[in-house]
């Protein structure tokens, strides 16, 4: 029965999830998006080596050394962020739970496979396995000994441990992991197949973070298909931003790899904005009082976070910033002087940071502005 | 399913004293504070001089198709086949609060331990006490009345097998319940003081479907 304005209504408090779950949802999206970015960067690097019709179509020129290095760095950053994101996100989820240790027995305890929490848990587990293996194979191996690149900092940390530990030998932790990576690294075609499966898993992970919410049908703000679509776009966008922020830190800001990923990110952000617009339009046209209350929350209580944080600083300004950098980068000689290069690098980094902040704020306001449809008490 | 239990509520008889709320807390040892398995809410409408307030007493509705059970990852929430009462096994609950979002009535509550607790129609005493208990018996058959029903001073609340409850309600209330506007197992008596606006009803909200 629909809720009408002529009836009294009971509003129920429902702020069951807040910053921990927002962090979990955000990092789930970032992890999935970063893994996808890593896979795409690996493909680009592979195509540069192959020089076939697809590489010509995608202009993967083998003579661009900086592009090749940036692709390698992006691939490594992406897989690493995939692992770190899902690990920290998992901790954030556990911190929210009433019985976190009990939740760790999920293989036995989680029996309701109709619940998105159970589906998502297994998606996370599978994704984590894929991301860890990808990180192992990209960051470790005998051929990477002595290699440079900021993305390789995990092996540098392990090498440092090998050097300072009292039991140090020539064959330390790094050697052990290198050996495991070389022994387990699959041949190229199989690895490609595994990456495709990983890509499907990462998209499933991103979409899951929204399906978890949109399964709650008494919250119209979380309705399908709008929220899953918005989260998918935001997840991929924030994943690209996180991975490419790493590439920028590695010195790859002015490479074709970064430039292309940045423009791809812009296109995704624009599509995400369309999705947000459609959701707001749906809410504003809905007679549901909960939908109206969510709209009021977005543009009143959480106006600063939503309008300022998500829409302005999280999406619109990054796109404007990115397009400005692109114009300066492509059509001027701005990058040829050191100050110009630093400004462009800073611009890219700022854009990516803003997108990440916007992505987190999006999850936060999606949780905080969610209002359940009120109970109708007719005839009072 | 055998006899499915539910509640009956007559707003005309409710005086808003909150005795049901307090009795529930007492029987189940729920500390003073925001956790309420049953609560009395005031719904207002209109403006002076055509202003009216109605009090409603609500708790878990032991829904026929319980959304809390559907989303619970561990199966801690169980809609019992034997009597239709929705119980929670706190030994399985991980405190994710997903049920709190899914429930349209705000029934799931979370104590200091972060685990879900809610009305179990006094199958036992204390959080999680309903899980694993034998089939609920009526007071006539040696069972205990729920504390809220036992304490209600105006006779506004009743609990029992739905079929038994329907025997004693008005035709309008029975018809409204039979129309199945929601899956909540609560029969609400119509009010007559609204000048013909229609019967009072606590309905599930419009969903996003």
From TrEMBL, chain A:
Membrane topology of the entry: Multi-pass membrane protein
Protein species of origin: Halanaeroarchaeum sulfurireducens
Annotated localization: Cell membrane
TM ranges: 20-43, 77-101, 113-133, 194-214, 226-249, 261-284, 304-328, 349-371
Gene3D superfamilies: Formate dehydrogenase/DMSO reductase domain
Protein name: Polysulfide reductase NrfD
A cellular component term, taken from the record's GO annotations: plasma membrane
Keywords in alphabetical order: Cell membrane, Membrane, Transmembrane, Transmembrane helix
Top-rank taxon: Archaea
Pfam families given in the database record: NrfD
Lipoprotein in keyword set: no
InterPro entries to which the protein is assigned, alphabetical: Electron_transfer_protein (IPR052049), NrfD-like (IPR005614)
Membership in a protein family: Belongs to the NrfD family.
From TrEMBL, chain B:
Keyword list, A-Z: 4Fe-4S, Electron transport, Iron, Iron-sulfur, Metal-binding, Oxidoreductase, Repeat, Transport
Alphabetical list of Gene3D superfamilies matching this protein: 3.30.70.20
Pfam families per record: Fer4_11 (PF13247), Fer4_2 (PF12797)
EC nos: 1.2.1.2
TM ranges: none
Region (Disordered): 179-209
MF annotations from Gene Ontology: 4 iron, 4 sulfur cluster binding; metal ion binding; oxidoreductase activity
SUPFAM superfamilies the record matches: 4Fe-4S ferredoxins
InterPro entries on file: 4Fe4S_Fe-S-bd, 4Fe4S_Fe_S_CS, ET_IronSulfur_Cluster-Binding
Ranges for domain 4Fe-4S ferredoxin-type: 5-35, 52-82, 84-113
Biased composition (Polar residues): 179-194
Source domain of life: Archaea
Class in the EC hierarchy, top level: oxidoreductase
UniProt xrefs under PANTHER family: ANAEROBIC DIMETHYL SULFOXIDE REDUCTASE CHAIN B-RELATED, PROTEIN NRFC
Name the record gives this protein: 4Fe-4S ferredoxin iron-sulfur binding domain-containing protein
Lineage: Archaea, Methanobacteriati, Methanobacteriota, Stenosarchaea group, Halobacteria
């Amino acid at each position: 029965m629909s809720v009408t304005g002529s009836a009294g209504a009971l509003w129920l408090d429902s702020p069951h999830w807040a910053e921990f779950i927002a962090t979990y949802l955000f990092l789930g999206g970032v992890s999935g998006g970063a893994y996808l970015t890593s896979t795409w960067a690996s493909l680009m690097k592979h195509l540069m080596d192959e020089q076939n019709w697809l590489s010509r179509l995608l202009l993967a020129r083998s003579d661009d050394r900086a592009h090749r290095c940036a692709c390698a760095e992006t691939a490594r950053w992406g897989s690493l962020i995939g692992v770190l994101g899902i690990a920290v996100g998992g901790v954030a989820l556990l911190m929210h739970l009433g019985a976190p240790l009990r939740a760790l027995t999920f293989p036995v305890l989680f029996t309701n496979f109709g619940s998105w929490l159970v589906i998502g848990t297994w998606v996370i587990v599978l994704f984590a396995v894929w991301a860890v293996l990808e990180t192992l194979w990209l960051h470790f191996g005998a051929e990477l000994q002595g290699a440079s690149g900021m993305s390789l900092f995990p092996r540098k940390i392990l090498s440092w441990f090998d050097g300072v530990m009292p039991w140090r030998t020539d064959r330390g932790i790094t050697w052990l992991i290198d050996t495991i990576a070389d022994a387990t690294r699959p041949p190229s075609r199989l690895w490609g197949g595994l990456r495709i499966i990983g890509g499907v898993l990462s998209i499933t992970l991103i979409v899951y973070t929204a399906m978890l919410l949109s399964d709650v049908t008494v919250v119209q703000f979380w309705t399908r298909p709008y929220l899953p679509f918005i989260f998918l776009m935001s997840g991929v966008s924030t994943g690209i931003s996180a991975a490419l922020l790493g590439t920028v830190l590695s010195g790859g800001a002015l490479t074709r790899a970064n430039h292309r990923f940045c423009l791809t990110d812009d296109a995704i952000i624009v599509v995400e904005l369309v999705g947000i617009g459609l959701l707001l339009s749906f809410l504003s046209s809905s007679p549901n009082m909960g939908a109206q209350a969510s709209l009021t929350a977005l543009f009143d209580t959480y106006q600063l976070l939503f309008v300022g944080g998500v829409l302005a600083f999280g999406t619109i300004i990054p796109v404007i910033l990115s397009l400005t950098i692109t114009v300066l980068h492509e059509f001027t000689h701005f990058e040829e002087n050191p100050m110009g290069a630093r400004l462009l690098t800073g611009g890219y980094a700022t854009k990516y940071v803003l997108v990440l902040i916007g992505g987190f704020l999006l999850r936060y306001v999606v949780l905080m502005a969610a209002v359940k449809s009120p109970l109708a008490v007719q005839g009072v | 399913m055998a006899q499915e239990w539910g509640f009956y509520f007559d707003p005309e008889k409710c005086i808003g004293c909150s005795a049901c709320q307090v009795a529930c807390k007492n029987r189940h040892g729920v500390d003073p504070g925001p956790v309420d398995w049953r609560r009395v809410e005031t719904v207002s409408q209109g403006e002076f001089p055509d202003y009216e307030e109605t009090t409603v007493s609500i708790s878990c509705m032991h829904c026929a198709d319980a959304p809390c059970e559907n989303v619970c990852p561990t199966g801690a929430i169980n809609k019992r086949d034997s009597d239709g009462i929705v119980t929670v096994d706190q030994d399985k609950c991980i405190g994710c609060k997903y049920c709190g979002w899914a429930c349209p009535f705000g029934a799931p509550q979370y104590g200091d331990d972060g685990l879900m607790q809610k009305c179990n129609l006094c199958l036992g005493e204390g959080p999680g006490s309903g899980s694993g208990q034998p089939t609920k018996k009526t007071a006539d058959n040696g069972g205990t009345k729920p504390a809220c029903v036992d304490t209600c001073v105006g006779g506004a609340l009743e609990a029992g097998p739905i079929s038994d409850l329907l025997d004693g309600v008005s035709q309008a209330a029975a018809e409204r319940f039979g129309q199945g506007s929601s899956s909540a197992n609560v029969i609400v008596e119509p009010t007559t003081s609204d000048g013909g606006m229609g019967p009072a009803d606590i309905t599930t909200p419009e969903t996003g479907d």
